[in-house]
Structure formats: structure tokens, C-alpha cells
Amino acid sequence: MFWKYGVVILLNTFLGPGVGQLVLKQFKKGFIILGIAALILVLMSVILISSVDPAAMPVDFGAMKEFAKNLIEQNSGKLKIINYALMILWAYSYADIIMSAVAERRKNENQKEEN
């Protein structure tokens, strides 16, 4: 039973924060974490889109790469803060999964002692 938390952590790693909580049937917490992650990503997109001048959009691919590079450089400070927020949310998600694993293990040990 305890091995499932390793699988849940892997899912959380590849699919995003909050997915592990959903797998553990902690639906309220999982959807809240997923919602916060989505909000952070939307905020990141809004910051990037709001700083674009539509008239300055390049047409060819080579110029588009340079345009995107410059856009990210111009907004790097704001994007760092948003990335830190996402990392903190992910770290919380991992910590919560680990705490759930420890709580379940203790519960199982207490049940074995009672029987």
C-alpha cells in the first residue's frame, strides 16, 4: 500500500501539482491546487500577452524566435516571481503527499497493534 505514494509522486511530477491529491482521493485539496496552478499559468500568459505590441509581430519563423526571446528577456523579473510561486505550489503538493503517506502508515500500524 505504501508503494502507491511513489507512483503518486511520479504522477505529480509529470502531470502537475494537485494530480497526486486527486489520485489519493483528496478531491477538494487536489482541485484547489490545480486551480491555483492554472491561475498562475494564466497570469504568466497575461503578462506575456499584455507586453506584446500587435504591430511588432514578426511573420517569419526566424524573426519569431528572436521576438519570443526578447519578450521573455523583457519580462524575466515578473516571470521569475511566477515561476517561484509555481515551484512553491509544487513543493507544497509533494510535502502534502509525503505527509499523507506518513499519516496512512501510522494509521495502518495503529490498526495492526489494535488487532
Largest sheet: none
Q: Give the class from helix and strand content and strand pairing.
A: mainly alpha
Percent helix, as a range, is over 70%
**Mean of residue pLDDT?**
85
Radius of gyration: 20 Å
Could you tell me the strand content as a percent range? under 5%
Count of helix runs: 5
User: Any idea what the shape is?
Assistant: rod-shaped
Element string (H = helix, E = strand): HHHHH
The end-to-end distance, rounded to whole angstroms, is: 18 Å
Give the number of DSSP strands: 0
Please mark out the parts with pLDDT under 50 across 5 or more consecutive residues, or reply none. Answer: none
Can you describe what's shown?
The protein has 115 residues and is mostly helical. The chain has five helices and no strands. The chain has helices spanning 4-15, 19-23, 27-50, 61-74, 76-114. Helix 1 runs antiparallel to helix 5 (76-114) and helix 3 (27-50) runs antiparallel to helix 5 (76-114). It is rod-shaped. The protein starts with a helix and ends with a helix. The model has no long low-confidence stretch (mean pLDDT 85).
Question: In summary, what is this structure?
Answer:
Helix content is 82%, strand content 0%. The protein is an all-alpha fold.
